[in-house]
From TrEMBL:
Lineage start: Bacteria, Bacillati, Bacillota, Clostridia, Lachnospirales
Keyword Transport belongs to the record: no
PANTHER family cross-referenced by the UniProt entry: ARABINOSE-BINDING PROTEIN-RELATED, DIACETYLCHITOBIOSE BINDING PROTEIN DASA
First and last residue of the signal peptide: 1-20
Name assigned to this protein: Sugar ABC transporter substrate-binding protein
Organism: Eisenbergiella tayi
Superkingdom assignment: Bacteria
């Protein structure tokens, strides 16, 4: 593949983009996220192709590559890149099928129905199920011959490697961190971010100011409560499920660590530092943080720009690892997306899919993308899943952001196994212990586990058993 030509072309595109003011989020360009580009099992990063190679490219059998895309947020930059990809791969045409929502999460249903795309950009959450179902093509034949492969961060590569086979190429990574308002901390006399659960509550007491509509601490209570709650379970030293070697799951809702996390939630409530309105949803919490009404809360790096759009001074947004619980660990989750190839596609389409994926995950593309994005303002401190570049290379972030992003690579983990199937049962138990001060965590989570075992566990295990 003509990687030098790609780098030159992207550089030219960047110049044009800066003049025209174009730009886009990787997760929302025409074909997906800052991801996909390729080179069939041949080495990337070589000099521009010789004329005979270009002629050979022209003589290849035509391949139509089917992609699922959304209609939102396409722009000049993404269109320019797509055109460049097609110019360099004249044997490939793109059949872009508009599918709103989260196309990657519907990939399984598409494979079952026989109308799945040839490649997909899937959330990390879905990958265990997809790997267990056998619908993903192993990528080793491509990655083993790609000279950029060694630059991808091992922690993320390992997440999607089973029995030596690589099934997904990490594209975007967003760690769940802990956000705090530096201005509110300073006004309350809090000199540094909390490192433990107890320190968080003590700091929240000082920051809490109901008369000025300032809450010391916020977490999800009205929806998706299992999303944040799982971090506290990990910090207490346990988990909500256990993945067995054969792909089946065991529920561990009654694990002592789950009860410890539940009691901490109750303590946040009883100490009066949690948001008083428990009906606030995710978007409300992020907006309130941006309005200077929240002292601290679980906070992902890619929410920074949204908070800034609500008025907070960027310099007042502090980010750190989550406070440690009884385990002493500041464990958190790594969310993101990775590119996969449909194992049911024919070989020519698989090869074309790899061309597309490696193209959009190349260093040349990512450099152009982030340089372009840097002109748009309010960037997010995300993790680029490569060791040879960092988002801090392109933006002036506080020094702490670089440190916390590096630390998150080590302490981050995937969401609890089976979350998509079991999460709603955890959600209801968490809501109950927050709403009812007399609720018994042990009883609520035992009841939730029993109901989940009755309604969801057998079906999950049947679908995921290897």
């Amino acid at each position: 593949m003509k990687k030098k030509a790609l780098a030159i072309a992207l550089s030219l595109c960047m110049t044009a983009g800066l003049m025209a003011g174009c730009g886009s989020k990787p997760a929302e360009n025409t074909a997906a996220e800052p991801s996909e580009q390729a080179s069939e099992p041949q080495k990337a990063g070589t000099e521009a192709a010789a004329p005979e190679t270009e002629a050979a490219d022209m003589e290849r059998e035509p391949v139509e590559l089917t992609l699922w895309v959304t209609s939102r947020n396409t722009d000049d930059f993404s269109e320019e890149i797509e055109n460049q990809f097609l110019e360099e791969h004249p044997w490939i045409t793109l059949n872009k099928v508009v599918k709103e929502g989260d196309p990657g999460n519907e990939f399984y249903q598409g494979v079952a129905a026989g109308n799945a795309p040839d490649l997909a950009n899937c959330s990390f959450t879905m990958m265990n199920s997809y790997m267990a179902a056998g619908i993903l093509e192993p990528l080793n034949a491509y990655t083993d011959n790609w000279d950029e492969w060694g630059n991808f961060t091992k922690e993320y590569v390992d997440m999607f490697t089973k029995d030596g086979s690589v099934y997904g190429l990490p594209a975007t990574v967003s760690p769940m961190l802990f956000g705090y308002n530096k201005a509110l901390f300073e006004a309350a006399g809090v000199t540094e971010p909390p490192k433990t659960w107890d320190e968080a509550i003590e700091a929240a007491k000082k920051v809490n100011d109901p008369s000025n509509q300032i809450t010391g601490y916020a977490t999800l209570a009205a929806e998706w409560t299992e999303w944040f709650f799982q971090y506290y379970v990990w910090q207490a030293g346990g988990d909500l499920t256990k993945e067995n070697a054969d792909g089946t799951a065991e529920l561990t809702f009654t694990d002592p660590a789950v009860i410890e996390a539940a009691k901490y939630y109750q303590r946040l409530r009883s100490e009066g530092v949690l948001q008083s309105d428990l009906t606030l949803k995710f978007g409300d919490l992020v907006a309130n943080f941006g309005l200077g009404k929240v002292g601290m809360m679980p906070f992902a790096g890619d929410w920074v720009s949204e908070a800034i759009s609500n008025g907070i001074d960027p310099d007042d947004i502090g980010l750190c690892l989550p406070p440690a619980g009884p385990s002493g660990d500041q464990t958190t989750a790594i969310a993101g997306t990775c590119y996969v190839i449909n194992a049911k596609s024919d070989q020519a389409k698989k090869d074309a899919a790899w061309e597309f994926i490696s193209y959009y995950t190349s260093k040349a593309y990512l450099t152009a993308y982030f340089e372009n994005l840097a002109t748009k303002g309010a960037p997010n401190p995300m993790i680029i899943p490569r060791d040879d570049m960092s988002v801090t290379d392109f933006y002036e972030f506080p020094e702490e952001y670089k440190e916390v992003l590096e630390a998150a690579k080590v302490v981050g983990r995937l969401e609890f196994y089976g979350k998509a199937d079991f999460g709603s049962y955890v959600d209801r138990a968490v809501q109950k212990i927050l709403v009812d001060p007399n609720a018994d965590p042990e009883k609520e989570f035992a009841d939730a586990q029993k109901l989940c075992e009755t309604e969801a566990l057998d079906a999950f295990n049947e679908a995921n058993k290897r």
